[in-house]
Write a structure and sequence with these properties.
mainly alpha, 58% helix, two-stranded antiparallel sheet, 14 helices, 7% strand, 4 strands
Length: 299
Amino acid sequence: MMKNYNNGLCTKKGEMKQDPYHVIHKLPPGDSPYVRAKYAQLVEKDPEAAIVLFWKAINAGDRVDSALKDMAVVLKQQDRSEEAIEAIKSFRERCSKQAQESLDNVLIDLYKKCGKLEEQIELLKQKLRMIYQGEAFNGKPTKTARSHGRKFQVTIKQETSRILGNLGWAYMQQTNYAIAEIVYHKAQQIDPDANKACNLCLCLLKQARYSEAKSVLEDVLQGKVSGSDDPKSKSRAEELLKELEQFGSFVYTSSSPQLNLEDAFIEGLDKLMNEWTPFRSRRLPIFEEISPCRDQLAC
């Protein structure tokens, strides 16, 4: 049973100020199934008890949005990702419209954990489709995100590039480097960063296009893209450079005609994203910027 007491803090006058226990432990107030589940999760560090209580909260209609998402996260931590996926699929209809986007984000992480690449790719394409249709961020140009306890604003432009980066990585796991390259190129056009640049370099390296790979890598090593000063990105760039140096000045030439970026992007994404709906006039301005040649993202 959750403890119900206050913790004392001294004020300037030497008086004792009572802070509620739930504030100290970052728990929601009250004594409902969801609150008890959070107590089991955060204070008692008892994931099994937390999962049972989250289920009770969902069945009781107690903060279902948070209960389902939190339970899925705990299940993932317990290496029960398949159960978490089924739980979200079964109970997301009980959640609000505002919660669906965050549930999709949890699902993508779960698919990644389970190695379900096709499901991960399909959901990422669905999120891109929502952005194109103006349905992401609940129709707003930015959203508030959290990372390591900090809040920050994310723009549609940043989110589009992030999703394309994740899509590119999923294709890389399928060893479909040509398509991953196309997706990474578009992500870098929208909002470039060092991590995606390194992934693009790897795509090119896997296709034996060493000169192009080195050119992409030099932007990171010379600090021309965001995140170049991050120790992990810098270390990875240096490792990739060493790998490229093994091939010297070798230049790859293909016997098949090479498509330029725009043609490749149009043809590749037309095939891969054929579930996208037709053009809608209410698409967000960012798509006017990134699709000058036909509707490159409206496949």
